[in-house]
Amino acid sequence: MQRIDHFAEAFLDEIVNERDQESRRAAIDRMIHPNVCHVSFDRAVYGKSGLDQRIAVLQASLPPLARPIVQEPPAVRGNTIFFPWCLTGPSGPTRSSGSVFVVFTGTLAEWIYTTADLHRAELSAPET
């Protein structure tokens, strides 16, 4: 069972930054509600498969070795969590950043809203 206050690190490490699809899918199955709605770049995707596909497209759009990390400690309020993130790579953090707001049903993330400020020219909103 997952604790909400540990979600931010686990979500980025085990889902967003996980390149192995089987490992990423296992983490999605463990942490994400079957009817999840993920909104990012003003577009929504639904269900675990939609989230998995969106993450794969996002990973393909990132420069090699770039990965989002939690920028500040998450704020947990009831069944919600909010945390800022930034993109980092071999030379340290970039200017690309954003935030994530999550609503849980029990310990499963059912609604995820991600914002992004893509400041670097080589980064753009992935098409999903």
Describe this structure in words.
Strands 1, 2, 3, 4, 5, 6 and 7 form a 7-stranded mixed β-sheet that branches. The protein is built from 3 helices and 7 strands; from the N terminus they run ααββαβββββ. Helix content is about 30%, strand content about 40%. It is of the alpha+beta class. The chain is globular. The chain has one domain (about 5-115): Nuclear Transport Factor 2, Chain: A, CATH 3.10.450.50.
Descriptive labels:
Nuclear Transport Factor 2, Chain: A; 7 strands; 7-stranded mixed β-sheet; alpha+beta; 128 residues
CATH architectural label: Roll
Number of structural units classed as domains: 1
Spans where pLDDT lies below 50 across 5 or more residues: 121-125
Order of helices and strands: HHEEHEEEEE
CATH class: Alpha Beta
The strand count comes to 7
- On the 0 to 100 scale, the average pLDDT is 88
**N-C termini distance:** 30 Å
Helix content: 25-40%
Largest sheet: 7 strands, mixed
Concise description?
This protein is α+β, with helices and mostly antiparallel strands and 128 residues long. The protein has helices at 7-16, 21-31, 47-61, and strands spanning 32-40, 43-46, 67-70, 75-77, 80-89, 92-105, 108-117. The N and C termini lie far apart (30 Å).
